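Quick question, first post here. What does this chain look like in 3D?
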Amino acid sequence: MAVLDLVPLWIALLALAVFYYVVFDGFDLGVGMLYGFMPDPSMRSTIMDSIAPVWDGNETWLVFGGLGLLAAFPLAFAIIIPAVYFPILVMLLALIFRGVAFEFRFRHEHLRRFWDSAFCGGSIVATIAQGVVLGTFIQGFKVEGRHFAGGSFDFATPFAFVVGVALLAGYGLLGAAWLVLKTEGALQDWAWRAARLCLIGVLAGIIVVSVWTPLANAGIAQRWFSWPDIGLLAPVPIITAAIALVEWYALTHRYELVPFLGAVGLFMMSFLGIAISLWPMIVPYHYTLWQAASPENTQAFLLVGTLFMLPIILMYTAWSYWVFRGKVRGDTGYHP
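> Answer (accepted):
Ran it through. Tokens below.
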């Protein structure tokens, strides 16, 4: 009797969780980073108000992705987590510290400068840590049998930290585009300028990582530059360049919605490029998605609860963004 292959469905669910986390928590981490560079206290309060209703709910997708990886691909979880234990630990501590700073800045007026710095610093540290995790994942891990065989600091490589810096620019672009969408006046002007600077950093990061990755791995180079793959995959960099041009045009001509959509598009194309480079590996370059998957019965059992909870998560996320739609103003709150 044929068994239904649930691995593609779990791949889609994990990809959804990762992408949603990058977009939703990415823009509020980006806002947190930009927050530290705004000298005007009144504008700082407006920046904080722009993410106050949604920032903590955005991290739902981080939990969903982590639990999904553990449930559907336990072998990958068992290898990847020890390999990036320290950057994940730093990321979680930074997210906690950032959350504490968010709450206490409203309650400790005499320590507001400290909590402001903590909110910005936590956002920066968490972003770099996530980039280091991604860079380490792309590089691959030392594996013996079914266990991670490397050292605790194997993640500390130039490539991983370059990816971390590139992610800083990416989240900064998302955050600035969010502020363009949610604010007006002098703060919106400032956000447009910040977005242009971040876009330059994003494009530099995409170019550096796109060149470095195939140079460091012959298999990835073969996938992208051998015939006929080079013809089939050529639309990926072409579409990415087109989105970048549209993004620059939208920022220089002061569109409001297009910059955020363009930033999401750049992340989507980068996500697709990484997926193409590594497919079908989930533990580069040792185990495929199917080799690392849990038994079919386990996947089916866990899928029931997942498919029940996922629509609820999507509905309350959409509802929260709908309720707090429109512009935010420092004196009178949200205006649809």
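The chain has one domain: 11-326.
The chain has a mean pLDDT of 88.
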